[in-house]
Amino acid sequence: MATVVFKFDGLESFALTLDRFRENIQDALPAFEAMADHQAAVNTKQYNSRGGYASGGWAPLSPAYAAWKTKHHPGKPLMELSGDLRDSLVKRPFGIDEVTGQGMVIGTQVSYASYHQHSTPTMPARPLFGEPQGVDTKVFAKILQSWIVKGTVNV
Question: Does any domain span residue 20?
Answer without folding.
Answer: no
